[in-house]
Here is the input.
Amino acid sequence: MTTASPAKGTALPWSGLLALSTAAFTAVLTELLPAGLLPRMAPALGVSEARVGFLVTGYAVASFLAAIPVTAALRGLPRRAVLVGTLLGFACADAVVALSSSYAVTFGARLLAGVMGGTMWAMLAGYAARMVPVERRGRAIAIVLAGITFALSLGVPAGTALAGAVGWRTAFGMLAGLAVLVAVWIRLRVPAFPGELPGARVPLRRIAMLPGIPAVLSVTLFLLLGHQVMYTYVAPFTAHTGYGRTDLVLLVFGVATVVGIWATGVLVDRWARPTLLGAMTLFVAVMCLLGLCGDSPVVLLGSVAVWGVAFGGAPTLIQTALVNASGPEHADVATSLQTTVYNAGIAGGSFTGGLALSGWGAGALPWTALPLLAGALTVVMLGRRHAFPAAPAEAERRVSAPPCSTN
Here is the structure.
């Protein structure tokens, strides 16, 4: 199956792209909102705060496990129908959480939401790529992924505050309503694309081994491993430096990620490779600075700001490279692989950081992250031919033969 891109010079379909971005916002808010509501939800469900925290863990595990098999199973269905279905699944799951007084039922609803999340993340970047001409692909993906940043920096704090004002059940009920509204918005403003015909489906293994795909997945893994080593334990590291203002550190990081997404949206379609190399270099430099001079408040906050800018732009750059390597027609499957790798990187990075913190203390965290991020930079440098080419992306790539190169 092939899908023609819109003609060169076509204006960006802002309403459709913003609908996809709001879908991403809704998914992230659904995933993380319980983390801010532990003291309120625990008495109502009759469990400890730690078990309420498992509602976030269960979502993540379900998303990790479902991304590849569910995406592969749904490849033949019309894409807009699948996307609308995932949002309605979010609405059902959030409505159950809002109404349930049983921890077991609530946990089951969170598993359903996780399956919807894994399915949605596999679709969004590829969908955005299909909606625009190839020379605007990176900007379209940046607009869609901005929903993640706004959910993390604004949505979760605002949702937590709203739950404090109107009650956590009402907050989840409103989140269910938002999911329904976004589903209607997508149905009206996002173009329909067909599923893959049975005879045209390329086996998942061949998509995974397309030239460039292994390199992009490797960068994703190394980046998330290194990032999570530091980000998961930013509070003990901040305390180790003597600064102690974790709230301000996280605020600086959040604001900087918004700047990073904006800057990447401007640069990605013309200078994708140098921008990604620059971001990876900044990651490495920041870890060196934090390791050597992190006890200076000026260096700490400045380094965190640079870190946020680099991390804000990295997902757009990497997903654009993935879509270019796979072609939009295979982007859903390729992105499902990346979703799995992404979640593995989060889990592995948090685990590795915990080992470093327990064994050597918070001061070792930047030095633990450094070789992982240097690995990501090295793969980008070596992946010039297929994964991260210097030239702008060519028109959609077709899969016609087994791959013979992976970088």
